């Protein structure tokens, strides 16, 4: 892997009037990474992507691609391609011509354009749709065509702006697997924007959590999930419990907590008592909402290995014990970590 990052952002700023969309963001994306920018709507992640692509010009800071500052270069002078949620395919062109369009702009010979476009369609597992028009394809197929069109130019970096947001849940999960497979096969650096926490955790080598234009935390999915930097990250990336104990603020994930019924062994655990306010059955697991006697509301998630929905409901209003290992209780800060 190259020592020079494919992308380096240094104190990047972007303002729209009095609103600061990107507030002194600094991060690097390593060559060959699947890097995700995660955050709620308006957090600055898409604007940061557009600054990398060249669709927006920064008001401060640097955008470096492979070590070169490109902040003032237009998009066509940057070795990146972008895939959007709305596909942006030409409706009057065939699928093959859509995929080959960028090669035509670069004035490659017709035979080479055709060969490379067919290879790109085969890579996204659509080898037989080249003669169709985009309107004849499903949403998932159109997204694959958009991906093939972006990859065919063999860019150094591929930018993906919530590309799966318009797909239904099952198709979105299938496409997540496909994107990871394609990224591994082509070896291109992927920078992926999403507000979906599960998507970010399951697909990324590393991820950056954005909030109100600033970076809250950068790390591997396990680092960000298991050791959130602050209250925002703990609450936004998955579900977490935030408790105040002994003058400090801590978080513990719902699946780390054990529901101790009857005389269940609590050896080695931090144990507290509380009352079950509600239960929620989700099929594979049951979610318990527990009001702790020491203060605080706790969400506990238990796999349904043996417990039935009716058995779980009978615990409503009952006093129970809960326990977790001390090392699973992570100290967190109040606000922004950077």
UniProtKB/TrEMBL annotation:
The keyword Hydrolase does not apply. Keywords: ATP-binding, Nucleotide-binding, Transport. Residues 7-237 form the ABC transporter domain. It comes from the Bacteria. InterPro entries: AAA+_ATPase (IPR003593), ABC_SmlMolc_Importer (IPR050093), ABC_transporter-like_ATP-bd (IPR003439), ABC_transporter-like_CS (IPR017871), Mo/tungstate-bd_C_term_dom (IPR008995), P-loop_NTPase (IPR027417), Transp-assoc_OB_typ2 (IPR013611). Coiled coil: none annotated. The keyword Transmembrane does not apply. Pfam families: ABC_tran, TOBE_2. GO terms for molecular function: ATP binding; ATP hydrolysis activity; transmembrane transporter activity. GO terms for cellular component: ATP-binding cassette (ABC) transporter complex. PANTHER family: SPERMIDINE/PUTRESCINE IMPORT ATP-BINDING PROTEIN POTA (PTHR42781), SPERMIDINE_PUTRESCINE IMPORT ATP-BINDING PROTEIN POTA (PTHR42781:SF4). This is ABC transporter ATP-binding protein.
């Amino acid at each position: 892997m190259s020592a020079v990052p494919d992308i380096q952002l240094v104190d990047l700023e972007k303002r729209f009037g009095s609103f600061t969309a990107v507030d002194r963001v600094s991060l690097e994306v390593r060559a060959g990474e699947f890097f995700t920018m995660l955050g709620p709507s308006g957090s600055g992640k898409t604007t940061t992507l557009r600054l990398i692509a060249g669709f927006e010009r920064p008001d401060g800071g640097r955008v470096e691609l492979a070590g070169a500052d490109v902040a003032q270069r237009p998009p066509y002078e940057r070795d990146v391609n972008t895939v959007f949620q709305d596909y942006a395919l030409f409706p009057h062109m065939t699928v093959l011509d859509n995929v080959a369009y960028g090669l035509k702009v670069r004035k490659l010979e017709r035979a080479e354009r055709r060969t490379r476009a067919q290879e790109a369609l085969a890579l996204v597992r659509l080898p037989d749709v080249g003669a169709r028009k985009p309107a004849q394809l499903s949403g998932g197929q159109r997204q694959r065509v958009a991906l093939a069109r972006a990859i065919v130019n063999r860019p150094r970096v591929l930018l993906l702006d919530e590309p799966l947001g318009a797909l239904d849940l099952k198709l979105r999960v299938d496409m997540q697997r496909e994107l990871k497979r394609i990224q591994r096969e082509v070896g291109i650096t992927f920078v992926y924007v999403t507000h979906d926490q599960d998507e970010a955790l399951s697909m990324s080598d590393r991820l950056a959590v954005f909030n109100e234009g600033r970076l809250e935390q950068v790390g591997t999915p396990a680092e960000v999930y298991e050791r959130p930097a602050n209250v925002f990250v703990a609450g936004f990336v998955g579900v977490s419990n935030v408790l105040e104990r002994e003058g400090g603020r801590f978080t513990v994930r719902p699946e780390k907590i054990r529901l101790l019924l009857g005389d269940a062994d609590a050896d080695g655990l931090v144990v507290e008592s509380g009352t079950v306010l509600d239960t929620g059955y989700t099929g594979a697991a049951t979610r318990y909402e527990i009001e702790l006697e020491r203060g605080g509301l706790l969400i506990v998630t238990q796999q349904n290995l043996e417990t039935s929905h009716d058995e779980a409901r009978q615990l409503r209003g009952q006093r129970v014990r809960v326990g977790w290992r001390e090392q699973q209780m992570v100290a967190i800060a109040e606000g922004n970590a950077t």
